[in-house]
Write a structure and sequence with these properties.
This is 9996_t:CDS:1. One of its GO terms (cellular component) is RNA polymerase I transcription regulator complex. It holds the Pfam family TAF1_subA. Helix 7 (110-120) packs antiparallel against helix 8 and helix 15 packs antiparallel against helix 16. Strands 1-2 form a two-stranded antiparallel ribbon. The radius of gyration is 33 Å and the shape is elongated. The chain is built from 23 helices and 2 strands. It is an all-alpha fold. The protein has helices spanning 4-11, 19-36, 40-52, 62-71, 76-89, 93-106, 110-120, 130-152, 177-201, 206-218, 222-235, 240-253, 259-270, 280-292, 301-319, 326-341, 346-352, 356-360, 373-385, 392-407, 423-437, 488-493, 505-514, and strands at 471-472, 482-483. Among the domains are: 1-91; 315-514, no CATH class. The longest helix has 25 residues, at 177-201.
Length: 515
């Protein structure tokens, strides 16, 4: 329904209030209220009165009239006649035509709707409207799918879109197979040509793009579909549907190269809360396979890049409010290995470059995101890994967990923490590293972190501060791991630029009691 002031201004050019004018305005407002309350009987009487008034422009009433006719159970012929009258007496003929097509579809008459559109496609102003061509293509596509079902299935199958009007005792319809094949080709060509015309006129309509690519892929024209979708993504970089289509086509039909990986990363960056099975899981599986197939026994950079890319995906999920807690635990594991394979912190710094908020955020349980204290502790441990400073207990948990992830030892000191981790997966990661580089992490003697041990993120002896702690494997010490840390006095003497999370004394005591 149009806004009230539009209806008032449409009555006449005289804005002085008269009694008749006031009555018409009140009637229109009552019509809006009646439709909102679903009182269609009263709305029907109001529409009849308004349509008889010469001052009322039918443009502002025809939608309400159609709504009333459809809900009062009037005959289909009556509604069609009203639509035809509106096409003759209103200025918004294109909108009326689209409503007529929608009515035909709701009535289970897709073929009638397509025939109506065919008669208007070559007329003004309809031939310049991309929606008219797009809906023509969509109707032809629906009928093409019906003929596919008939041809590929039983010869007595009735079209799906007509089944809602099928009577209970109606005998099944026998379809002529040759006629169905002929109709299939005709509907396909009509749908392809109409959708192509619609996309040429409106290059941002993703609904038409989806159907158009389905038709191209059904005919095996993968390269043509990719060209269309790539062009759409270049012209509309912020429309998610285009990037999703590009990823789906590349992943299903052109997965022999890595272009689908880049398309998936772009899609996930634009829509980080998309269903995990749509893009996140395929990307994670790809990077895990790269990790398993690593053959270089000296270069750690490829494995660092793998963990970096996995972390980038997981952080996008966490930052955008995805409450799946597995992402936090996987981020802790991958961040530990990223620091292990990236001792110079090149990729680590890139990962944390625009995520300073994560190190400064005060993670606290609430009913919407973090539902228990243990989950909160994992968020804080991840924040400690990313470079924030915290109280000793959180640091101790983080150090012990990092020690266990890398060596498999010290798990008894974590109590229930390991129950949330996939221990088998951690073991596979360690074994993979051992097989690649030829040393055994489980046999390396590393002193287990003490409860009073300082944060590994402490500054080094040269006074250079770091945003996150790291465990480095020196080139000349193949058989030994080295965990860098300093004592508390050296850390307090030098300036530390990193932000830290401070806990009140009473809250800190409560946390100690909890753990």
């Amino acid at each position: 329904m149009p806004r009230n002031f539009d209806f008032i201004r449409s009555l006449n050019d005289d804005f002085f209030l008269t009694v008749r004018r006031a009555h018409l305005i009140n009637l229109y407002e009552l019509l809006v209220t009646s439709l909102s309350d679903r009182n269609y009987c009263r709305a029907n009487r109001i529409v009849e009165i308004l349509l008889q008034c010469p001052e009322v422009d039918v443009t502002h009433v025809w939608r309400a009239a159609i709504d009333v006719l459809m809900h009062l159970g009037n005959a289909e012929k009556t509604c069609i006649d009203f639509f035809n009258q509106m096409l003759l007496h209103t200025r918004c003929k294109e909108e009326v035509l689209l409503e007529l097509i929608s009515f035909q579809l709701h009535s289970g008459k897709p073929r009638d709707a397509l025939e109506i559109l065919d008669t208007y496609l070559t007329q003004q102003p309809y031939k310049d409207n991309p929606l008219i061509f797009g809906y023509t293509g969509m109707l032809a596509f629906a009928l093409w799918e019906q003929t596919n079902v008939i041809i590929n299935g039983s010869s007595v199958i009735k079209p799906i879109i007509d089944q809602e009007n099928e009577k209970i005792n109606e005998k099944p319809v026998i379809h002529d197979l040759e006629l169905c094949i002929e109709q299939q080709a005709r509907y396909y060509e009509l749908s392809i040509s109409s959708l192509r015309m619609a996309l040429e006129m409106d290059k941002s309509n993703d609904m038409f793009l989806v159907i158009y690519t389905q038709l191209l892929l059904a005919d095996g024209m993968v390269d043509e579909a990719l060209d269309i979708v790539r062009s759409f993504c270049n012209q509309n970089p912020h429309i998610v549907i285009g990037h999703r289509l590009l990823f789906d086509i590349l992943y299903k039909h052109r997965n022999e190269d890595t272009e689908w990986v880049q398309a998936g990363k772009t899609y996930h960056r634009i829509d980080p809360v998309s269903p995990p099975e749509a893009v996140l899981n395929p990307l994670i599986n790809y990077y895990e396979n790269v990790m398993e197939n690593q053959t270089s026994t000296t270069d750690k950079r490829p494995l660092a890049e793998v963990h970096y890319n996995i972390l980038e995906l997981l952080f996008q999920r966490i930052e955008n409010g995805d409450d799946e807690f597995e992402y936090v635990k996987d981020a802790i594991v991958n961040f530990t290995w990223l620091e292990f394979f990236d001792p110079q912190r090149e990729l680590t710094n890139i990962l944390l470059e625009n995520r300073a908020w994560f190190r400064k955020f005060f993670w606290f349980p609430n009913n919407k995101t973090i539902t228990c204290w243990q989950h909160m502790q994992y968020y804080r441990i991840l924040a400690v890994f990313c470079g924030c400073k915290s109280q000793g207990m959180i640091i101790s948990r983080a150090n012990k967990l990092k020690y266990y992830i890398l060596t498999g030892k010290g798990g008894e000191g974590l109590k229930g923490y390991l129950l949330d981790f996939r221990v088998k997966k951690l073991k596979e990661l360690r074994e993979n590293v051992e097989n690649i580089f030829g040393y055994y992490l489980n046999e390396v003697v590393i002193p287990e972190p003490k409860s009073d041990q300082l944060d590994i993120n402490s500054e080094n002896e040269d006074g250079q501060s770091s945003d996150a702690d790291y465990i480095s494997l020196e080139d000349d010490q193949i058989d030994q791991l080295h965990i860098s840390s300093e004592n508390e006095d050296a850390q307090s003497d030098e300036e530390d630029e990193a932000e830290y999370i401070s806990l009140e004394d009473d809250l800190l005591d409560y946390l100690y009691d909890e753990f």
